[in-house]
Amino acid sequence: MRSLKHILLICAAAAAVLTIACANGKQSTGNHGAFNKPLATPQTTGNKPKVICFGDSLTAGFGLAEKESYPYLLQQKLIADGYDYEVVNAGASGDTSTGGLERADWVLGQDNAKIVIIELGANDMLRGLSPAKMKQNIDKMITKAQAKGLKVLLCGMLAPPTMGAQYQRDFSEAFPDLANEHKVAYLPFLLDNIALNKDLNQADGIHPNAAGEKIMTDNVYKALKPLL
């Protein structure tokens, strides 16, 4: 059985994800183009095998300098451990699963792409979009990635009880279901040990700060390493 601590962590993470989704929704209005521009990443060579970080503001590194974003930090970890991969930041703040699917062919079609880390879905929840449709969109992304021979790491999202019991169940279970169906690597909590900790988040209380980003990178790296 899950411990009380683990159950509390699930609830905290779910609440944090909802807050992140709300922030992304606000970012997607007004200066839309600027918010949806992914951060710059280390200069590409075109020859090294690529790890593509595909997601929303958490992937894009909202509110951070380039060298503080998780894709950049992941690149440094790979170099330090002797892995000859290039990390590509394909994060776009405010993106939904539909938006991700619309740009999937371009994102996944980059030369020598080998692994994709998919982190999408929070904005679907914000807008009350169908969990079934979200699942279908991410299913198609995973299928596209696997058809191109890419390994996939899927980052799960959680819906809080305030969304209603049925919505919460359908949404939250979509991610592990997809991971099992496609037999892909799965990271249940991207914000594990970060969510709701004011010392690890920016002033908005939503996005990880530089310290939180390091922990988030560790979370991703642990799940990614078996795929390298």
Walk me through the structure.
The protein has helices at 4-27, 32-35, 57-60, 70-80, 97-102, 104-108, 122-126, 131-147, 165-182, 210-224, and strands at 50-55, 86-91, 113-119, 151-155, 185-187. The model is unreliable at 1-8 and 19-43 (pLDDT under 50). The chain has 228 residues and is an alpha/beta fold. It has one domain: Rossmann fold (3-Layer(aba) Sandwich). β4 (151-155), α9 and β5 form a beta-alpha-beta unit. The chain is 48% helix and 12% strand. The chain is built from 10 helices and 5 strands. A 5-stranded parallel β-sheet has the order 2-1-3-4-5, with helices on both faces. 46% of the residues are buried.
Distance between the termini: 32 Å
Return the average pLDDT rounded to an integer: 85
Q: Can you tell me the CATH class?
A: Alpha Beta
Which stretches of 5+ consecutive residues score pLDDT under 50?
1-8, 19-43
How many structural domains are formed by the residues? 1
* Strand elements, count: 5
H/I helix tally: 10
- Named at the architecture level, the CATH assignment is 3-Layer(aba) Sandwich
CATH topology: Rossmann fold
Q: Which secondary structure elements does this structure contain, and how are they paired or packed?
A:
Blueprint: H1 4-27, H2 32-35, E1 50-55, H3 57-60, H4 70-80, E2 86-91, H5 97-102, H6 104-108, E3 113-119, H7 122-126, H8 131-147, E4 151-155, H9 165-182, E5 185-187, H10 210-224
Parallel strand pairs: 1-2, 1-3, 3-4, 4-5
Helix pairs in contact: 4-10, 8-9
